[in-house]
User: Fold this.
Amino acid sequence: MKKALFSAAAMLAAGLFCVLLALPAGAQSAKTTFVTIGTGGITGVYYPTGGAIAKMVNDKRDKYGIRCTVEATAGSVYNVNSVVSGDLEFGLAQADRQYQAVNGLEEWKDKPQKELRAVFSLHPEALTLVASEASGVKDIRELKGKRVNIGNPGSGQRQNSIDALSAVGIDFEKDIKAEQVKAAEAPGLLQDGRIDAFFYTVGHPSGAFKEATAGATKVRFVSISGHEIEKLLKEKPYYAKTTVPVKLYPTAVNDADVETFGVKATFVTSAKVAEDVVYAITKEVFENLDEFKKLHPAYESLTKEGMLEGMSAEIHPGAMKYYKEAGLIK
Ligand code: GLU
Assistant:
């Protein structure tokens, strides 16, 4: 008797399952797609950027059925790897890192990441170097013998720092005491005199440099320029000249902007992420760009056209569908 009851219940359950499967997709109204965006440390600009993108999409949850969350991560390289492996659906990544991943360079040497897809580009990021006034460092060449945070493994800035140092003839393994801690920890170490300087590739203003320049230890932004850097920019087309707008950090020692080079932040995904999800995110960000730009001062210079530059991976079909529909790409 028990057995008969059990199998009747099982048949009923199986039947119900079949009915659910047979229903058109729209009728399963409770279906929500969960996606996560990999960002960076919480004192950077990626973290609030992930939040800004998530807000645009979550505001339309009834329309799209997408629930977007944000994760603090180690940065660009970590995000690219997690997106490709499917641990994250989306990630922020420097344009140079996107290029290297697609072309099998640096961290991806001889391993081109074929599944990586571009969605759009975002704010400019500057390779930013600060040093304590006490260290006496006023130029990148003066970092020799100093204790310098070059960036944690998984970050975008680590390779940018190494490139800049090598360009001016500094071997990061021999000529400096290189630290590799996360950007969020560097300002505290600088203020406490435990490091002399640190590099961070980030949009401005950022919490990291506010914190680095706001304490009792006087801190200076240091320029990364000169003919060796010009040569580097010619060799690596993904780098472009830029400046750090020091007026955003009024308590820094500097009184004029400092020269350096930088990249664009980009938004990436994987070929495996569904077209309708990527389409919805792209559409919401582009159609509400004015509102989006109000969410962080680093987005000041964003334009729709500029957001289509700096992508080296294939554009995801969901994003492409929107760009064609909006007439942004023919
Ligand atoms: N550019 C940094 C990286 O790729 C992150 C900057 C940020 O979090 O705003 O690791």
Observations:
- The pocket of glutamic acid is lined by residues 40-41, 44-46, 75-76, 94, 125, 155-157, 201-203 (CB under 6 Å).
- The CA atoms of residues 104 and 210 lie 35 Å apart.
- The domain at 125-263 is CATH 3.40.190.10 (D-Maltodextrin-Binding Protein; domain 2).
- Residues 17-28 have pLDDT under 50 and may be disordered.
